[in-house]
Amino acid sequence: MNRRNFITQAALATAGICFPGILSAALTVKKEQRYKIAVIDLMILKRQKISALQLTKDIGADGLEIDMGGLGNRDTFDNKLADPLIRQQYLDKAKELGLEICALAMTGFYAQSLATRPTYKQMIGDCITTMKQMNVKVAFLPLGISGDLKKNPELRPALVERLRVAGDMAEKAGVVIGIETALPAAEELKLLKEIGSPSVKIYFNFSNPLKEGRDLITELKILGRKNICQIHCTDEDGVWLQDNKRLDMMKVKQTLDRMNWRGWLVIERSRDAKNPKSVTENFGANTKYLKTIFQSPS
User: Fold this and answer.
1) Do 275 and 244 form a contact (C-beta atoms < 8 A)?
2) Domain boundaries in the chain?
3) Superfamily of the domain at 34-294
4) 103-125: string of b/e by CB count within 10 Å (b at 16+)?
5) Mean pLDDT per 10-residue run, the chain (298 residues)?
6) Which of 3, 86, 111, 140 lies at a C-alpha separation of 20 to 30 Å from 134?
C-alpha cells in the first residue's frame, strides 16, 4: 500500500470506517478516562510544597488537589502560588510528570466561618485568580464546623447570601465552586436552589452520609449528575478502601455510570489506623484499588 492510500485509509479508520488488515498504533485514538484519581497535598503532608507533585506520581495518582494555604488571622490565605515563579514551577513540574491539578482547596474554611468572615470576598477572589492563572476549573469550599447548617440553622441566610456572591464571582471567571455541607442530599438540593448559581455545586464526600448512617447510593441519585462537581472518594480513617465493609465501591461505580457522571475522584482519607503516617503506603493502596474499579479495561 502506498503512503497516500495508507493515509486515506487511516483517516477513514479514525472516523470509524475500518479496513481489514489496518491494525496500527497510529490509528488508535486515545480515549479520555471517564474517571480520574487524585490525592490532596494537605493530606499527603505536602501542603503547598512542590514536592507533592513527585509524591503524587510515586503514589500512582493522575492528579493533585492543591490547598490554598493556611489562614489563621490573616485577611486571606498564605498562598505561595500567588508568586508567579513558584506558580510556574508547579505548572512545569506537573507537565513534566504528566499530572493534572484537579482543584484548589480553601480548607481554611473548615475552621473559619464563611458566614461571618469579613474578608471572605478577598479570600474567594484570591482563589479564583489562582485558578485562572493555573487553568484549574474547580475550587473546594467546605462550610466546616462553623458553617454546619444542621447545628447552626440560623446561619443559613448569611451563607446563602455569601454563596450567591461567590457564585457570581465564579461564573464571571468561568469556574465552579464545590461546597461540602453536613446536610442530607435532599437538603443540599434545596440549598443549591436557594443559592441559584450554576457555578456553585456540591463537592460530594462519601464519608458524610456514611458516618451519619445515610445510604450513599441514594444520596448520589438524589443529587444527580449536574449537581456534583467533584467527589472526595473515601471514608473516615481506619481501613483502606479495599477493606471497607460499609463502602461498596463497585456499586458506587455502577451508580455513577448510570448517572452518566464523569470526573475526579479525590482520595482524602481511608488511612490504615495501624499505620496512619505511612503516606505512600496508604494513598498508594487506595489509589491502586480505585484504579482497578474505575479505570479497568471495559
Assistant:
1) no
2) 1-30, 34-294
3) Divalent-metal-dependent TIM barrel enzymes (3.20.20.150)
4) bbbbbbbeebbbbebeebeebbe
5) 44 41 39 92 98 98 98 95 98 98 97 93 98 98 88 94 98 98 97 98 98 97 98 98 97 98 98 96 98 87
6) 111
